[in-house]
TrEMBL record:
Comp. bias regions, Acidic residues: 140-158
Renumbered residue ranges of the record's region Disordered: 130-190
Key words of the record: rRNA processing
Superkingdom as given in the UniProt entry: Eukaryota
Lineage start: Eukaryota, Fungi, Dikarya, Ascomycota, Pezizomycotina
Pfam families per UniProt: WGG
The keyword rRNA processing is annotated on this UniProt entry: yes
N-terminal signal peptide: none
GO terms classed as biological process: rRNA processing
Name recorded for this polypeptide: Pre-rRNA-processing protein TSR2
């Protein structure tokens, strides 16, 4: 399931768990950066979607799965699929969150997941509005560049820049000591 879809949230415990996994992974900064930067190649977004499904399957098929197992999977996938070494404990935090949300779905408590969904929808709307604003600004910049390029035909004669004169460097004569040796002086002390 893609967290960016505008479909309503889940209706049963399994669907809520899938939604929770998807939201947790889509909110994980390390994975988000890896996907946005295409560190997993051009199919980075597909790899994230695959990871969501793989975690859901793992939690449904192996009841003994705990947060440590899940953290190991997250770290391994980030390393193997995205060439990212996660050493900031964020994989453990994501694993803990997913396991807590799993426990809530088992108890029939869906409020936290619904809240996460609501926050995700708000952020998506803000990102969309910001992208639209960026496009508007970008098109205005292009219009200004077009206006400026029309003015390029009338060049203004600037003249020659004034010459900059440097004072000639003084040549430092080597010092010769009483024994006839030349004293070496660093450039800084000259």
């Amino acid at each position: 399931m893609d967290a960016q879809s505008t479909a309503p949230p889940a209706t049963d415990a399994a669907s809520y768990l899938d939604l929770a996994i998807t939201l947790a992974l889509n909110n994980w900064p390390a994975l988000t950066l890896a996907v946005q930067s295409n560190w997993g190649g051009p199919t980075s977004a597909d790899k994230r979607a695959w990871l969501c499904g793989a975690i859901s399957e793992m939690l449904n098929e192996r009841a003994e799965t705990d947060a440590e197992d899940l953290e190991d999977v997250l770290v391994q996938v980030m390393n193997d699929e995205f060439d990212v070494v996660v050493d900031d404990e964020s994989a453990g935090n994501v694993a803990d969150l997913i396991m807590e949300l799993k426990d809530q779905t088992v108890r029939g408590e869906f409020g936290a997941i619904q809240e996460m969904w609501h926050v995700w929808q708000q952020k998506s709307a803000q990102r969309s509005a910001a992208a639209d604003m960026f496009k508007q600004v970008e098109s205005k910049d292009e219009d200004q560049e077009t206006d400026e390029s029309e003015d390029e035909g009338s060049d203004v004669e600037m003249g020659d820049a004034p010459a900059v004169e440097r004072a000639p460097r003084e040549r430092v004569e080597p010092e010769i000591d009483d024994d006839g040796f030349t004293k070496v002086v660093s450039k800084k002390k000259r």
